């Protein structure tokens, strides 16, 4: 029986050594995986920083190009205005008449277009300073007629209020004297703060950095980690008194 006991002890020792070796392998594997995860996170962070830096550089370049475009636009407008101011009287009268005529070709209301256009051209021929105003880069006949339309609407509204009349179908209507339209046309070209000349202020709109994309869900089933090995249950060895009793029985 002592030989069997020794074999059992040896087997148990071998099993424990195997378990210890397997646990050591698992620990080393876990440490290697943890180190790999840390390295991957560092690489991801570096890649994200590089993407952000590239985005910021691209935005800075786009903003610089936008600002340069705005400067060129303002410089071109200023140069055109300075050129008009520097023109001689005869030159500016001819240029303003041509400009008014070119603008009028884009309009569709023939009667009004022709009458007002001829009035402005005639005034350009007689007043060089007015002709220079017509040559301002922001001034044109299309905006002039918008100015006249706005003034005519205000005039009609006031006329109906003064006469205690109510709008018909939500609108106002009345006859506007021709001389009033001519006066408004002249006012438009002399008014450097006309509402019709105000353009929507352009602003640079930065594009926000999209940030790191959300991680995709891994559809593949994760490999199941091997369950830790359990120690074999300890065998019940007969105590010394039991062995003695067996020997005694055998005797």
Give structural attributes.
mainly alpha, 7 helices
Layout of secondary structure:
Layout lengths: L1 H85 L2 H16 L5 H17 L1 H7 L6 H22 L15 H13 L49 H11 L1
Helix pairs in contact: 2-3, 2-4, 3-4, 5-6
Oligomer: single chain
Strand content: under 5%
The overall strand count is 0
User: Which residue ranges are poorly predicted, with pLDDT under 50 across at least 5 consecutive positions?
Assistant: 235-251
Enumerate how many helices there are, as a single number: 7
Please write the string of helix (H) and strand (E) elements.
HHHHHHH
Main sheet record: none
Write down the Rg.
47 Å
Provide the residue-averaged pLDDT.
77
What class do helices, strands and sheet pairing give?
mainly alpha
The best one-word shape is elongated
Proportion in helices: 55-70%
Biased composition (Basic and acidic residues): 21-30, 48-76
Region (Disordered): 1-77, 195-251
Biased composition (Basic residues): 217-227
Protein name: PcfK-like protein
Characterise this structure.
With 251 residues, the chain is mostly helical. Among the domains are: 16-86; 87-190, no CATH class. It contains 7 helices and no strands. It has helices spanning 2-86, 89-104, 110-126, 128-134, 141-162, 178-190, 240-250. Helix 3 crosses helix 4 and helix 5 (141-162) packs across helix 6 (178-190). The chain is elongated and about 130 Å long.
Can you summarize this structure?
Residues 21-30, 48-76 have a biased composition (Basic and acidic residues). The protein has 251 residues and is mainly alpha-helical. The chain is built from seven helices and no strands.
């Amino acid at each position: 029986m002592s030989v069997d006991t020794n074999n059992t002890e040896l087997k148990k020792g071998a099993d424990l050594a195997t378990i210890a070796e397997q646990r050591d392998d698992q620990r080393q594997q876990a440490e290697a995986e943890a180190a790999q995860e840390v390295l991957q996170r560092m690489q991801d962070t570096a890649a994200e920083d590089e993407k952000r830096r590239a985005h910021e550089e691209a935005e800075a370049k786009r903003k610089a190009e936008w600002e340069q475009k705005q400067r060129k636009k303002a410089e071109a407008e200023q140069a055109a205005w300075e050129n008009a101011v520097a023109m001689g009287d005869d030159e500016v009268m001819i240029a303003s008449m041509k400009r008014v005529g070119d603008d009028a070709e884009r309009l569709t209301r023939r009667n009004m277009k022709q009458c007002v256009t001829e009035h402005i051209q005639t005034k350009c021929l007689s007043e060089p300073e007015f002709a220079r105003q017509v040559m301002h880069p922001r001034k044109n006949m299309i905006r002039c007629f918008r100015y006249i339309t706005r003034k005519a609407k205000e005039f009609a509204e006031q006329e109906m209020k003064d006469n205690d009349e109510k709008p018909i179908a939500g609108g106002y209507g009345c006859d506007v004297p021709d001389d009033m339209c001519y006066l408004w046309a002249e006012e438009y070209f002399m008014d450097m703060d006309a509402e019709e000349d105000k353009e929507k202020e352009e602003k640079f709109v930065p594009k926000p950095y999209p940030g790191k994309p959300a991680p995709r869900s891994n559809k593949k089933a994760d490999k199941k980690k091997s369950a830790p090995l359990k120690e074999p249950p300890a065998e019940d060895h007969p105590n010394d008194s039991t062995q003695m009793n067996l020997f005694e029985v055998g005797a």
